[in-house]
Design a protein that fits this description.
Blueprint (H helix, E strand, L loop, with lengths): L1 H38 L13 E3 L4 E3 L8 E6 L2 E5 L3 E3 L6 E9 L14 E4 L7 H8 L8 E11 L2 E10 L2 E10 L17 E11 L3 H8 L4 H8 L3 E11 L6 E12 L2 E13 L6 H5 L1 H4 L4 E10 L3 H12 L10 H8 L10 E4 L1
Antiparallel strand pairs: 1-2, 2-5, 3-4, 3-6, 6-7, 8-9, 9-10, 10-11, 11-12, 11-16, 12-13, 13-14, 14-15
Length: 356
């Protein structure tokens, strides 16, 4: 009988142990569930960006503002830019461009929104516009050169002359390019889709990120054909411009520009390269490209070229005018400006030939 009683006691103890284990297990599972619930991110999320539209008249991407958003991520063909406003100036350089936008809160109170629906923009074939010519020019230099800005383009005989800014190894330089064809070029439209041609780099200089073209206009004293137009009573408006530094001390530089000239109802467009030499440079870099340039007694001017636009060159200039393109690089990194101004060398290579 004693043995049977002992077995009953052991059985009871086993049952109690199993029950305790079950209770502990339930408690453990409950704790896990509780912890998992509170481990979830309960941070509210910003609303998705709506009404994303690309306007090819002004070359701007627009979208509706999102409440509590501090800035927006704009993804263009896989590359993301950060902007504070609900618009972004962008000139396509590929035939097809895809845009999407995301709203972001910098405080951490809200999670970033989901990406918006993708908006696709396609450049019309054989259309002469600022976008289509940008696409054409962006391929003039080989890999390693990142196209940043088209200043102007001119047709002369069997050549297309282009001024554009490219970035390579972190440096922004303005390039004078010549593309030669085996026929006389009559219009931009006939060469934009033309394969072949020889591209020559005529000159290239580090940029100075100042609006020197408008400072020049303030002087009301020019040189060459541009001065003749002024004396004939034309008024001038800057459509595009870029400065190239020929010397590191900011004494000598070129001003590349497209101007709109008006006299009564008459309108014409010209592309010019004006060389400026500052007589006594200022230690303040900006002063040399602005104040010194505005005072005729403080500088010398030499007109290197002046080309009056005709045919669809005018269509291109009108579209560029409508786009109201920035005359300087608004977000150009300060370190780029410093490296350009202190590079210690002058780039002046002639006739580097590229067969494309």
């Amino acid at each position: 009988m004693a043995m049977k009683k002992g077995k009953k006691i052991l059985a009871a103890l086993g049952a109690i142990g199993a029950l305790v284990a079950a209770v502990v297990g339930v408690a453990t599972n409950a704790d896990d569930i509780y912890n998992k619930i509170w481990a979830q991110d309960n941070t509210p999320q910003l609303a998705i960006v709506r009404t994303v539209e690309y306007n090819d008249e002004y070359y701007k991407l627009f979208w509706d503002e999102v409440a509590n958003a501090d800035y927006y991520n704009v993804n263009i063909n896989g590359e993301t830019q950060t902007v504070e406003d609900n618009s972004y100036f962008y000139v396509p350089t590929t035939q097809t461009t895809e845009f999407k936008v995301q709203a972001v809160d910098s405080s951490g109170e809200y999670k970033a929104s989901e990406w918006s629906d993708t908006v696709t923009y396609q450049i019309a074939e054989n259309e002469v516009s600022y976008a289509s010519v940008n696409s054409f020019v962006s391929t003039m230099l080989p890999g390693g050169f990142n196209f940043k800005k088209l200043v102007n383009i001119s047709l002369e005989g069997d050549k297309v002359y282009t001024t554009a800014v490219f970035e390579s190894d972190g440096e922004y330089k303005v390039y004078e390019l010549s593309t030669e064809y085996d026929f006389e070029v009559q219009s931009l439209s006939e060469v934009m889709n033309e394969k072949g041609g020889y591209v020559r780099i005529l000159d290239k200089y580090p940029i100075a990120n100042y609006d020197a073209a408008n400072s020049l206009l303030k002087s009301n004293s020019y040189a060459g054909q541009m001065e003749e137009y002024r004396e004939q009573g034309y008024s001038f408006e800057v459509i595009s411009q870029q400065v190239g530094k020929l010397e590191e001390d900011n004494k000598v530089f070129n001003i590349y520009a497209t101007y709109k000239l008006t006299r009564g109802s008459e309108v014409k467009y010209i592309n010019t390269i004006m060389n400026a030499v500052i007589k006594e440079t200022s230690s303040n870099e900006k002063t040399n490209y602005t104040t010194k340039l505005e005072n005729a007694e403080d500088r010398y001017l030499y007109e290197l070229s002046c080309h009056e636009l005709t045919g669809d060159e005018i269509n291109f200039a009108e579209d560029m005018e409508q786009a109201n393109i920035p005359l300087t690089f608004e977000n150009l990194e300060q370190e780029n400006n410093q490296s350009n101004s202190s590079s210690g060398y002058i780039i002046n290579s002639k006739d580097e030939e590229l067969s494309l």
